[in-house]
Structures are given as structure tokens and as C-alpha cells.
Amino acid sequence: MPSSRELQSWSLAIDDTDSLQGDCTTETMFSFLASAGETLKLIDFPHLIRFNPNVPWKTRGNGGVSIRFQATRKDAEEIFEELNRRLPSASTELNRNPGIVLIPLDAVKEANVQKFYHKIMTRVVLLDEAIELLNTLAVSYLGKGTKRGLIGALGASIASLNDFTFELLTYRTRDMIGQPRKIETASVLRFEKKWFPRIFNSYDIDNDIPLIAPRGKDPVLFGLRGENPLELLEAYRDLEIYEPVAGGLIFKTNQGTDQHLEFATNKLIPFQAFVDTGIVISPPEDLQGGHVRFLTRSKFEKFEYWTVCYEPSKQLRSIIRKLIPNDEIEVAGGVRNLIIDKRITINLERLKILRLEPGMIRENPHCPQCNKHLTSKGKGQGFKCKKCKKSFPDAKPTLRKYDRGLHPAIYLPPPSAQRHLTQPICRYGIGSKAMEKYNQELFYPISLSKTRENKKE
Ligand SMILES: [Zn+2]
């Protein structure tokens, strides 16, 4: 064990410091880093880590935030205390139960730690399990209220990313929080057209929804998601912003990487991330509320489940409606705690069409003389031509192939309905990427004074 005076690398994480009343976990870290300055020796971008999106009692945004830095053990513990002092108190009313965790960064690589990380990405983690690991791992940790924030803080502190994206989050000045955001919508659309796919999910063009800004009292002004932090810093200038910006912070994140699906299984356990190769066994049906569902049988396991595409998935539903029995698909999503006709329900997050059944349509035969479709005389009584009045007692219906209007591919909901973790189509093929070397300054809060707040004047 290193002595208390030796420099070591640390991971310090927080979760659940947010509420709907104008706080946000990323903003807690932003303001902490702004006050700490470069006396804090960051060795990587702050991490924003999203977890299994199917957990019903998740914290808002369902993500924890961590920083990685070098310090002696004594200094690290002081930094822990400083951040701890900035955490808001627990609040039942606001459903806020902050947690903070300090671990040696080396511990992240340990097998049992990574096993826990896989679990928090795909399953339900109980507080006791988190505390059990924290007791063996953490130098310091503290949970307030129900201590639920400890789960996400631990998750963020041990995140291990083979693939990652960046998000530049910008923050509003205190006096603006709660007021409408002054971002010109047309500039967000232009931004999407200019920067996609290097910067993605800025605007849902099919549904005409800008996606960079949260709503309400959130202190975040906007967030830009992309592959490269330098591009994010260049790109934000293309947005027309008419309010002051308190600053920005670039997070390295598992958003847009499908990390939860990467570790998922086809176990039908409620609230778990789920991936299965299946066969469509019932025609899709429309439900009240605009949802569409069909029955799927697992290809290898022989169990059946409902795959449901909910209304917010918008255009994806028109793909689902074209499926027919025997199509081979991959269903990815979350297991819901909902059983209909003894079968559990999967909330569809991604559909892969692997193989399409040829589309065959049954048609009445043609009259050999008139070349018109014959009409049926009733079951087992053959056909009749309306034009020449001839009967054809032995004629049989014919099968004609029709165009299914589908092809094997990956289909997602539109960006406005995607989970934070969902990998956009434009990122397929990236798989994993190596971390480039970036200027250390980028790890700290960035002044964004050159926004166009005065442009209209
Ligand atoms: Zn005829």
C-alpha cells in the first residue's frame, strides 16, 4: 500500500445531488471544479456515466459523475471533504439522496469491481451490495438520506469505457434559471445539419424537436454530444444564444455507446437490459395509446414474450407494423414488470431485422380468356368469371410475392425518444476507440464568453 505522502490516482464521484428545483449533479461538479481550479490535478475528463435505464426508481437523469485526479492520500481525503461540503442536503420532498465516493483509481480494474459495473449497467443493484463493495474499496464514502446516491456514485467512480463519447454541458447564470432558454431554434437545426454525424442528437429532424436543451429549472443551458471535445468547442459558436453562459464542462461519457446492451442477456427478469434473437410469431397489433406489440419467440431458448414499441418511438412503429410471422429479428430493450396472457413485456429500444420472411399474398386465379381475376363462389366451390360467366370448379388461389418495404437493418426510435445510452446509427462501426491525448486544460471548466448573447443588439 502506498504511503500517505505518495502521489496516487483517485476517482471521486457523486450522484443524486439534483432535483427539479434547479440543481443537477453535473452542475455540482462544475461549480466544485470552478472553485478548486488547477490546484486539483485532473488526469482525465470528468466522467458522466449513465446506468441501466430500466430501473424504475432511478435518480433523475440516471447518471453519476466522477473526476479522476492525482493527489496524496491525505490531499485526496481533503478534496473529498471539500466536495462533500458542497453537496446539498437530502430531501424527501425533492426525492434527493446524495452520495459521494472516493476510491483509488487502480481498483477500477479489479475483476469483482468490473463485475459490479456490468451489473449496474444492466440490472438492479441494491444499496446493500453497493455498500458491501464500498467497504472493501473506498477510502471514504458518504450517503445522505436513503443513501441511494451511493449506488450511482460508486457506478460512476468505477466506470470503464472501451467506447465513449463527449458531452459539452453549459450552465446558466443563477439569475436565468427558471426563465425560458434564449437559444434560437433555427440555429439548432442548422447546427444539426452542419455537424451531424460528428455531433449527434442535436435535433430530431423528423419530429421537428430541438434536443440540446433540457426543460424547466435545470441549470444546464444546453449539451452537445459528439466524438471529439475540440469539435464541440468549435461547434457551439454556431448556436445563436442570447443569454449569458456561466461556463461549460466537457464530460467523457458512455452516452451513445449501447454499453448497457453490450452486457445484456436474454433473461426475462424485470428491469434488466435485454437482448435476444427471436422469431416473430404473431402479426403486430395496434394498442390504445398508439403502442404496437407482437409476440416473439426466442430463437434458441423457446420462450415467448411481447415486444412492445411504445408511442414515443413514433416512426419506429411503422417499421414494426410491417413485420410478419417468421421474420427473424434481434430485440434489444428492457424487461418490464408487466405480464399479459402469461407472457412478459419487453420495452423495445432497438430492432435488428436479421432475416425477412418472403411476403406472399394469396390471390384468386385469372380467367384464361378474359385475364381478369376470378371471384370465389364460396368455400370449396371454385371460382367464376364475372365477365364471361364461366365457372372454374377446380381452380386454386395463387400466391404472389410482394415487396415487404423492409430490409435487414438496425432500426431505432427517433433521437427524441432514444435513451441517453442508445447508440445512434451514425456511431455504428466505431465499436471501441482509443483515448487521444488532450490538453489538460480541457478537463476543467471552460469559459464560454464568446457566445453571441449580444448579437441581437
Ligand atoms: Zn372470363
What is bound: which ligands?
Answer: zinc ion
Q: What are the low-pLDDT stretches, counting only 5+ consecutive residues below 50? A: 453-457
CATH topology of the largest domain: Alpha-Beta Plaits
Count the E strands: 24
Q: How many helical stretches?
A: 9
User: What's the main sheet like?
Assistant: 10 strands, mixed
Instruction: Examine the secondary-structure arrangement and name the CATH architecture of the largest domain.
Output: 2-Layer Sandwich
Structural class: alpha+beta
Distance between the termini: 61 Å
CATH class of the largest domain: Alpha Beta
The percent range for helix content is: 10-25%
Overall tally of domains: 4
General description of the model:
This protein folds into four domains: 8-157, Alpha-Beta Plaits (2-Layer Sandwich), CATH 3.30.70.2200; 165-257 and 430-443, Alpha-Beta Complex (Glycinamide Ribonucleotide Synthetase, Chain A, domain 4); 264-356 and 404-420, OB fold (Dihydrolipoamide Acetyltransferase, E2P); 362-401. The protein has nine helices and 24 strands. The strands form five sheets. Strands 1, 2, 3, 4, 5, 6, 7, 8, 11 and 12 form a ten-stranded mixed sheet that branches. A five-stranded mixed beta barrel has the order 13-15-16-18-17. The model is unreliable at 453-457 (pLDDT under 50). It has helices at residues 25-36, 73-86, 111-122, 127-137, 149-157, 185-195, 229-235, 259-262, 316-320, and strands spanning 8-15, 41-42, 47-50, 63-71, 99-104, 140-143, 165-172, 199-200, 203-204, 209-210, 220-226, 245-253, 273-280, 285-286, 292-298, 304-309, 328-340, 343-355, 359-363, 375-376, 383-384, 391-392, 398-402, 410-411.
